[in-house]
Amino acid sequence: MRAVPEFGHALLKELGAPRSPAIETFAEVRFKDGAGKLVIPDGAVVCRRGQKTWTCLVEVKTAGAPLKDEQVGCYLDIARDNGFDGVLTISNQITASSSESPVAVDGRKLRRTALWHFSWWRVLTEAIVQHRYRGISDPDQAWILGELIAYLDSAASGAGGFEDMGDKWVAVRKAARDGTLRQNDPEARAVAERWEEFTQYLCLGMSQDLGRSVTSPRPRKQTTAARLDESVKQLAAEGSLTAVLRVPDAVGDLRIRADLRARRTLASVTFDAPREGRAKSRITWLLRQLADAPDDLRVEAAFPSARETTSALLSDAREQPEKLLYGADPKREPRAFTITLARAMGQKRGKEAGSFVRETRAQTFDVYRDIVQRLKAWQPKAPKLHGPGADDVPDAPSPEPPRFEDADVREVGDAPDPVS
């Protein structure tokens, strides 16, 4: 952060740090607690701009080492007593935002001192986006950031992404399939917590390859605990887990559903149908956009004032588009379309071929690259003036979603972009 200020500011701006001319960083700073005992946080960061000074302590864990509640609580006390703005923790534990922490501390400690958290996967994502898309003005600093990316991308650094669904995954998957999983089972909550991390892992991974911020939308006032309760309830009742990924300017949100009972993973996108034309022409509009999509894609049409939907495999819809028309009223225009790709769920642990993490990640990226990024939302044509030269005015292009390029999609462990 000190050597590459553009990267440092990108990380620290959401913590409230000012954009100082130079970021000051310190390692193994030493303090004494109220009892006179020596306390050594891993580091400290200082940002100054004008009359404002922002400071925070830093605590870091790597590999499988978790952050410790008592240790972080002690650093919060040190930060408060010494006038620091807060404590920043960094570990392989992935959270939805920097304001969510994987540790539990007494809420009274947070009245005057903030607690923030970054995962190493988030740090790596910010480094890649800054290096590849935003750019670094100084060539030497660009080289340094490239070296950081190479280091964090190595398994030897202990700064990994998401390894697997945890040691409770196999038991929960079996219980869900057998119908014996209950909402109060502690194993169900452990899996829900891992799923929450996996969702953020997917968001950050897509951000790395798109250069845009991919998020998982949630109700504004929903807490992490409430979100986990919702996932556990769905897991026990339906035997499934759901994640929603939002890519800026994409035609719709990408929805990932892991069906543990059927052992299938479904990736889908829902978007509005055209608001003009006859029912069949609106379906034809969709099929033209799916000209190169796989035949086993499932297409579903929803209609206004009707609970019933129509559905067909893409191969069948191409031959008989009328299968997607509303049965009771074939002239009723569709309101929205849902495109779904289903695949067998990976069964292995870890991130090797055939594992749940690897296969679900690959399916998510494939659906976005091959389907979602190619879909364009319908837009009504602008009303035209009649007269000489009126037809010479080109239509305004609609914004396109960010696209994956084959060379850009990277797996964990891929070598970073070469830096000249």
Structural class: alpha+beta
Write down the overall mean pLDDT. 90
Rg over alpha carbons: 25 Å
Give the end-to-end Cα distance, rounded to a whole number of Å. Answer: 21 Å
| Low-confidence region ranges | none
Encode the helix/strand succession as letters: HEEEEEHEEHHHHHEEEHEEHEH
- The domain count comes to 2
- Report strand %: 15-25%
Looking at the structure, the CATH topology of the largest domain is: Trna Endonuclease, Chain: A, domain 1
CATH architecture of the largest domain: 3-Layer(aba) Sandwich
Largest sheet: 6 strands, antiparallel
Number of helices: 10
Specify the helix fraction band: 25-40%
The CATH class of the largest domain turns out to be Alpha Beta
* Strand count: 13
Lateral arrangement of strands in the main beta sheet: 8-9-10-13-11-12
Write down the overall geometry.
globular
Overview of the structural elements:
The radius of gyration is 25 Å and the shape is globular. With about 425 residues, the protein is of the alpha+beta class. The chain is built from ten helices and 13 strands. It has two domains: about 150 residues, Trna Endonuclease, Chain: A, domain 1; about 140 residues. The two termini are about 20 Å apart. The chain is about 30% helix and about 20% strand. The strands form three sheets. A six-stranded antiparallel β-sheet has the order 8-9-10-13-11-12. A five-stranded mixed β-sheet has the order 1-4-5-6-7, with helices on both faces. The model has no long low-confidence stretch (mean pLDDT about 90).
